[in-house]
Structure formats: C-alpha cells, structure tokens
Design brief:
Blueprint: E1 11-14, E2 31-35, H1 46-53, E3 58-62, H2 71-83, E4 88-93, H3 95-109, H4 117-120, E5 131-135, E6 147-152, E7 157-162, E8 170-173, H5 183-201, H6 209-231, H7 236-248, H8 263-275, H9 279-293, H10 295-310, H11 317-334, H12 351-361, H13 375-384
Parallel strand pairs: 1-8, 2-3, 2-4, 4-5, 5-8
Antiparallel strand pairs: 6-7
Helix pairs in contact: 2-3, 5-6, 5-7, 5-9, 6-7, 6-10, 8-9, 9-10, 9-11, 9-13, 10-11, 12-13
Length: about 375
C-alpha cells in the first residue's frame, strides 16, 4: 500500500426529514445565497423544506445553474455574492449545482483579476467561502469531496478545480428526494458512481486489500440496487443504498494508498465539451475502449474485478479480464445507457484527433495511473469508442 494522508471534514446528515437540521449548521448571523438549478426543487417540495428551515435567516437566491455548470452563469452569481455581501453559500441540487457553488466559494475569496484563472492555471483553493449542500441527485459525490468541474461554452472547455478549502461544511442526504429524480438521471447517477469507483480501483495491485474490498462492495451495491431503483425510485431501502454508494464512491476514502487512473474522465470531459453529451454517458462510452486498449497493464485487476464483483470463476487471467470488460459494458446497457459515440452523434469523425489536439494544448501529455498514456493513445481509445 502506498503512503497517504486523509482528512475529510464534511459533516454528513443522512436520512428522511433531515433537511430541517440545516438551521443548526449555519451561523445565525450568516447572509446566505441559496443556489439551485432549473427549479425542480420548487415542484418536489425540497425548496419549501429549505425555506422553512431557514425562515429566521437572511437569504438571497440564485437559480438557473445548468447541468455542466456554466462559467458565464456563475459569473452572474458571483456578482450577487459581492453586491449583497454574502457570507455563506447553500447549494440545493445535484453535482452541477454543488460544483458551481464550489467555484463560487473559491472565486469569492480569490484575490486575482480573472476568476477563470482558478481553473485555467490550476490554482488550488486553500480557503473558500463556507458552504453547505442539500443533495437532490445522487451521482457525483461532490457533496463530500473538494473537487469540481466547470464548463465554459464559449471556448468549449470543461476544466477541473479543487483544494482543501472546498469541502462542504455539511451535506444533507435525504434518500426520499430520489423519488422525484427522472429515470435518465438515475441511470446517469448509477453510471457516474460506478465509473468513479473504477477510476480508483482498475489500475494495478499494490496490496491495499481493504481499499479494494471497499471499492468492490460499492460496485456490488450499485449492481444490486440498480434494477430496483430504476423500477421504483420510491423504494427507500434502494434509494438509501444508491445515495450513500454515490457519496462513498468519491469522498476520497477508496483512493488513499492506491494508484488512480482518471483518463476516462479527462477524455469524457472533452466529449461533453464538444457534443454536450451527459457526463456519465461519456464515461460509459469510453470505459470499455479504455480497458481494452490498456488490457495488458490492467488485466490483473480486471480479472480480480470479474471474480469478486461479477462472480466469474472460470478461465485464465486474460479470459476473466476480458469477461470483466464485457460485464461492465453489459451493466451500462442494463441501466439504459448506450456505449458507443455513434449512438449519440453522427458527427464523430475526427473526434479522436481533436481530443488529442486539445489534450496537447493543455499540457495533458501523461495520462493514466502510470503516466504513460499520450494524446496519441487517447486518440486511439476514442476511435475505438466510435
């Protein structure tokens, strides 16, 4: 096992009816900016619960944060923060709203002239404006980590940011919100969380036995609850396990002491920037191709995964590993997600070379757990996904 340090300061408040507790987690003298997306929280009762809980507080609101949080929209929210002298941010939404709030947390304390530099120049956030979250869509794990991804449509960029100053102070996880989530977004959440685990697990063995088994248990749980939560999102047991699995998939625990990959995410972000494809679906498009292309360096973990997660107990290491890839692609199909780029766009010609160009432009020339995947390798992986 590799050396590591681990600290996660986010307080999790889990369970039905817990939104009422947010009033005890925010300073009484705080001036709050309530941030949300397209307004679904006003239809499913979550907005009313939040407003009731905060009836004694001074609140401003900013809605309309889109999926793939858009820099131009967030700039308008930043203006509100400065104009209204906001001191605390509250994200009520899924990963996009929470990621947008993380950018605002950082930008509100940033001393430079151009907040885009936080992303473009990879400036870590050591101290941000404090914020909490009320999760409405399990998927990204952003409610318990310090990373975010922001889109800038005018330049077709989708960039990451992070730092120890971007952990939520608290996050409320009420599984009953899942019942109002559209099925497409539940499928996306399952695929997103599943791939988050794979990015931290599907590398090479380093003797981290507990991390491997925690990762495998999250994968097994997602596979187990997927049919139920897609058929009946009101099933509280399934919703609870789905929501907590999504959080555990990317709260930092399973990546400590082990190598991580993240090449699928890096390439997937480019597909979203170029075509507007849902983030989770870009991951499903690339996962099988990535593992097939890097088969020799990943086959030991692929075989272990096939055995422990899918029960594949026959065959050689190579045969089990290939079966693991097949099972993964079949899982995506079983939750209603297609796995070829051509399923999403007919303009895929030249996409591989364009992504390679964009990676070179950003200095992303050493991808994967070994740092040996080049933009040219990325081009071939994307082409395999056509």
């Amino acid at each position: 096992m590799n050396n590591f340090e681990f600290k996660n300061p986010t307080k999790i408040i889990f369970g039905e009816g817990q939104i009422a507790k947010i009033a005890t987690e925010i300073p009484k003298d705080a001036k709050i900016l309530l941030l949300y997306g397209g307004g679904s929280i006003k239809k499913n009762g979550i907005y009313e619960q939040v407003k009731t809980a905060l009836k004694e507080f001074n609140i401003e609101e900013f809605g309309g944060i889109p999926a793939n949080p858009e820099y131009a929209v967030l700039q308008k929210a930043l203006d509100v923060i400065k104009e209204k002298q906001i001191t605390f941010l509250l994200a009520v939404g899924g990963g996009s709203v929470i990621d947008g709030t993380k950018f605002l947390s950082s930008a509100a304390e940033y001393k430079g002239d151009n907040p885009w530099d936080i992303l473009d120049k990879k400036i870590p956030t050591l101290k941000g404006m404090p914020f909490g979250t009320v999760l409405t869509l399990p998927a990204t794990g952003s409610e318990m980590n310090s990373g975010a991804v922001i889109t800038r449509s005018e330049t077709k960029q989708k960039l990451t940011m992070g730092g120890p100053g971007l952990f939520p102070v608290f996050s409320v996880l009420d599984p009953t919100v899942v019942k109002s989530v559209p099925q497409r977004q539940i499928s996306n959440g399952l695929a997103d969380a599943f791939t988050h685990v794979l990015e931290q697990y599907m590398t090479y063995p380093v003797g981290a036995l507990l991390q491997d088994r925690i990762a495998e248990s999250i994968l097994q749980t997602l596979v187990e609850v997927a049919p139920t939560i897609l058929k009946d999102p009101t099933d509280y047991k399934a919703a609870s396990n789905f929501m907590w699995s999504c959080t555990m998939a990317l709260n930092g625990l399973i990546q400590k002491g082990v190598p991580s990959d993240w090449a699928i995410h890096i390439m997937g972000h480019e597909l979203t920037a170029l075509f507007g494809i849902d983030h989770a679906r870009t991951l499903a498009i690339l996962t099988g191709s990535h593992y097939s292309y890097n088969f020799e360096t990943k086959k030991e973990k692929l075989a272990q995964y096939a055995e422990r997660v899918w029960g594949v107990d026959q065959g050689s290491i190579d045969e089990k590993a290939r079966k693991g890839i097949e099972k993964t692609v079949a899982f995506f199909h079983s939750i209603g997600i297609e796995t070829k780029l051509s399923d999403y766009t007919k303009d895929y010609g030249g996409t591989g070379s364009e992504i390679a160009r964009r990676l070179k432009e950003r200095g992303m020339i050493a991808l994967g757990e070994h740092g040996k995947l080049t933009p040219e390798d990325a081009e071939k992986i994307v082409e395999l996904s056509y």
